[in-house]
UniProtKB/TrEMBL annotation, chain A:
GO MF annotation terms: RNA binding
Source species: Parasponia andersonii (Sponia andersonii)
CC terms in the record's Gene Ontology section: catalytic step 2 spliceosome; Lsm1-7-Pat1 complex; P-body; precatalytic spliceosome; U4/U6 x U5 tri-snRNP complex; U6 snRNP
Protein's name in the database: Sm-like protein LSM2
Function: Component of LSM protein complexes, which are involved in RNA processing.
Subcellular location: Nucleus
Keyword Transport: no
Keywords attached to this entry: mRNA processing, mRNA splicing, Nucleus, Ribonucleoprotein, RNA-binding, Spliceosome
Pfam families attached to this UniProt entry: LSM
TrEMBL record, chain B:
Protein name: ICln
CC annotations in GO: cytosol; methylosome; pICln-Sm protein complex; plasma membrane; spliceosomal complex
Signal peptide extent: none
This protein's UniProt keywords: Cytoplasm, Nucleus
Main location: cytoplasm
Compartments, as annotated in UniProt: Cytoplasm; Nucleus
Entry keyword Cell wall biogenesis/degradation: no
Family note: Belongs to the pICln (TC 1.A.47) family.
Annotated GO biological process: cell volume homeostasis; chloride transport; mRNA cis splicing, via spliceosome; spliceosomal snRNP assembly
Length: 93, 230
């Protein structure tokens, strides 16, 4: 549940979601569910030349299984907190 | 396994109405939306038709030709979004990307038509254009809801990869009363075990090479023996 909990903390922040088909979408994280399905708002495609038709998709639902990477805002990465959380997770909870 | 778009013409009754659903496996109709056009890839829009959204798939059935219809499982829908930009597409639509299961080589605009026959399984984009653009946000939400009803099926043989993605499964099993310490520590141990296994493999290969040399010698000796017998 660590990723799920962590991503929930990032709701409202700007992230870039890179899909397994190389499409990268930047947007405000609206919500995430237990399957790591991601909803973005105010989205824009990073490589607009390659994907012109995706130019102004306002809100977007991305299936968790097709996500390759999520690029996080640096200010959203609290190393101390993540250390603790991963240790807790490793201990089972 | 994602299969992409497929033809669908199984309709209830005398072909007039709703698509036949897999009720035995719990498939239910969630939503019906008349007057929707469908656009597959770069093909021209097809209309009029009716959109049926079930707990498992999206089905579009032509109102004109009872043999024409398409279905996509939610498992194959990678992404969906409301698109209102006339530059992106002339009509406001629900834009979807479809995982086809084939190699990623196909570019977005690759011609999915071969010898005049459309290969539906290669279509990577589908647009649904409702007659009333104000319905788009509701459609979007229904798609979200149904996507969440269709998580990835658990594939047994990919167990060692699955654990990364299935924090929720671990959660479920913990809820069922299993010892969480055991469950969570098991997988990392396996991973370490695998890397150890690689070292072992490297050593085994080395030993094999040594053995090979021995065998070569043995063969030569065999040859010698054979030749001396001849």
């Amino acid at each position: 549940m660590l990723f799920f909990s962590y991503f929930k903390e990032l709701v409202g922040r700007e992230v870039t979601v890179e899909l397994k088909n190389d499409l990268a979408i930047k947007g405000t994280l609206h919500s995430v569910d237990q399957y790591l399905n991601i909803k973005l708002e105010n989205t824009r495609v990073v490589d607009q030349d390659k994907y012109p038709h995706m130019l102004s998709v306002r809100n977007c639902f991305i299936r968790g299984s097709v996500v390759r990477y999520v690029q996080l805002p640096p200010e959203g990465v609290d190393v101390e907190l993540l250390h603790d959380a991963t240790r807790r997770e490793a201990r089972g909870g | 396994m994602a299969v992409g778009v497929r033809l669908f013409s199984e309709r209830v009754g005398e072909g007039g109405g709703e698509p036949v659903l897999d009720a035995e496996n719990g498939e239910e109709l969630m939503h019906v939306r008349p007057l929707v056009s469908v656009v597959l890839g770069n093909r021209p829009p097809q209309s009029p038709g009716t959109l049926y959204i079930s707990t498992k798939k999206v089905v579009w059935l032509s109102d004109v030709d009872k043999e024409i219809g398409y279905a996509v499982d939610f498992l194959s829908l990678s992404l969906h979004a409301v698109c209102r930009d006339p530059e992106a597409y002339p009509s406001p639509c629900l834009y979807t990307q479809i995982e086809t299961g084939s190699d990623e080589d196909e570019s977005e605009d690759s011609d999915s038509e071969t010898n005049g026959v459309v290969d539906l399984s290669k279509i990577t984009e589908m647009r649904l254009v409702p007659s009333d653009p104000n319905q788009l946000d509701q459609l979007f939400e229904i798609f979200c809801e149904c996507a969440e009803l269709n998580p990835e099926p658990i594939e047994e043989e990919e167990e060692e990869h699955n654990w990364v993605f299935s924090a929720d499964q671990i959660g479920d099993e913990v809820a069922e009363g299993e010892d969480p310490d055991w469950r969570i520590s098991e997988n990392p141990t396996n991973t370490i075990g695998h890397s150890n296994g690689d070292h072992d493999l490297a050593r085994t290969v080395l030993e094999l090479q040594i053995d090979d040399q021995r065998f070569e010698d043995a063969e030569e000796m065999e040859h010698d023996v054979n030749s001396s017998h001849q």
